[in-house]
Amino acid sequence: MTQQKSSMNRRSFLKSSTLAGGGLMLSFTWLSAFKSAGTTGIADLPGDWVEINGYIKITPDNTIKILNPNPEFGQNVMTSLPMIVAEELDADWKKVVVEMGPHDSVKLGPQFTGGSNSVRMYWRPLRQAGAAARHMLVEAAAQTWSVPVEEITTKGGMLYHEKSGKSGTYGSMATKAATLAVPKDVKLKDSKQFKVIRSAQKNVEGAKIVSGKPLFGLDYQQKGMLIAMIHHPPGFGMKLKSYDATAALKMPGIRDVFTQKLYEDGFEQGGFDTRSFNDLLVVVGNTTWEVMQARKQLKVEWEPAGETKDTMGGRGQKREVVVPGTLESTADQLKKMQEYAAKPAQQLRKDGDPETAFKNAAQIIERTYTAPFLAHNCMEPMNFFAHVTDEKALVAGPLQAPGWSEPTLAKLLNLPADKIEIQMTRMGGGFGRRAYGQYMFEAALISKKVKAPVKLVYTREDDMTYGIYRPMYTATYRAALDANKKLIGFHVKGGGIPEHAIHANRFPAGAVDNYLAEGWQIPSNITIGAFRAPRSNFNAAAEQSFLDELAEAMGKDPIDFRLKLLQRAKEAPVGRNNEYDAARYAEVLRLVKEKSGWGKPENAQYSRGVAAYFCHASYAAHVVDIVMKEGKPYVEKVTSAVDCGIVVNPDAAANMVQGAVVDGIGNAFYGGLTHKDGVPVQNNFHTYRMIRMPEAPKKVEVHFVQNDIDPTGLGEPPFPPVFGAVANALYKAASKRLYQQPYAPQLETPKAF
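Above: the chain sequence. Below: its structure as tokens.
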């Protein structure tokens, strides 16, 4: 057993014995003194993670209920987080009941699913919660049986005293345990003792999902509920000029048509607040179909919005952000990015003397990579329910960051936070899109206006044209080689609309004596936001493609080349700010090399590409195997290696990696959103191409590095290197290097090469 010091106290470890028939309820509160207003991200949270919420309810009949604190959108935290509690509690997992915990900003802080943080944040505190509860149950049994505490053992929700032969359930000791003091020091299990953690457990909501039980926001119903839809401008940089709703109001089931501002002038937005269109034209009616048909009858005129200003808060600062009024087009954006790329940029990191290295180089390799805006395209379009009165508000729906959205909602409704109830439904996808709660704000304001319960629903076209995309990126990579083809200089200069993707302190920084990273960005009115592994998803694609091309120019195997650089970074690192652990990075490469049979004759049938990347504290590597199928490249197999520390639930973890692989292949081949005079050209799946079932790999083989490191991120790290591995495999299959995403259009049009 390992000793874990705890700073818990009775205020942060609430107890209640008011359950019917007695029993025990333990509830850790984490960040109980933390106020979510003004929070912009994980970096703002206190560093002492000892106060976390993990409800444990035990009834006298030995029912053990564990509440999951974090929103669920398919990453399976509904299973994995309660597993952590159950492990230290020493409960029988088969007899544990799991429920979604309530949202409570005061007790729970900013509950957040994103940034691959769920398991990483909760690992120690949830273990403490389970271990503390077990200790109190053991002490209750010792007092009841008049035996020494150290002689009590536990197993599967049972207490045992071997010497006397006495035994009892947790439930039989629960009421007694609730009267005992909370232990200040909690003993945690050694990882070798784990029985629940590291064992494959099925999704606790699996049966409900496949049987169609109401779990998602779109399933939410309430008596008297109306349906609302928003008619927004067709393009970014436009606003409402006038409208005529005469015909729409005559349609069956239509209650009202009106305009509504999302934010009043000067409204101070929080760090995770955003808006694509501020002036909303709203249609409210009885049913979704009726509202959709009425919206088509609106006669609307739009006009240029001109330059606008947003007031942004967060991180204790207040600033004015100027939003350009240009009606942007993709062709012009690409031209503008070329112009900016030729200008001086912000220096992000510099090691050694890269200017001299390039001046003296015998050979310079230079390549530029670009990628388009990407739409999230969650399978469940944005939606939210709201019932707002003058005294209180109930909102319910799919939301990644309720604690971060609640302060803004309270300001918009002019209600105190304790008069707002946020119910979290299961999300039909998120990928960062649902971290931005403007659709919840819209629903609440509409409900307040019509004085009735309302469900706001986006159509797929609304969802795809409403913004909050992955940004548009470009990056130029340069390498300097000496006469012996030794790498002596490395330079990356990246930009984007409206941000760049460069992570200056990641590999190969730290592995090259002369290194320079620069960045630039172009303002835009096209709203962007987090997209599975923000920035990394492009950075990895470009970097890993370039490293392959560099290895080829140097006459080296691409895996061996990377391993040699990582050896340098481990043994004699350059600089002090390297984010990654070179040894762990190298291990995933070795593992994927072994498991994929890299270089073995039996795999000569494949065009193979490799890539590896570090982000969100984890390491992932893929080998992609492409074959030609009916004249087109097809990813038949992918071998993946991941180091995310201790794997809580191997089944769920493997599923996460497989999903990231399929998602990455689809976006690499097909993903892309373009604009013409501010208007998104793609507005549904007939024009925005997604990967289809026959295009998914026949096999995605997932391997995890086995270690005892505390869990790190998993939802995002496997995603970025997929792009690079696909690009490198396509080079072998098509004998052409591809520098622009998506790749499929270039393969279909020979002249594009």
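The radius of gyration is 28 Å.
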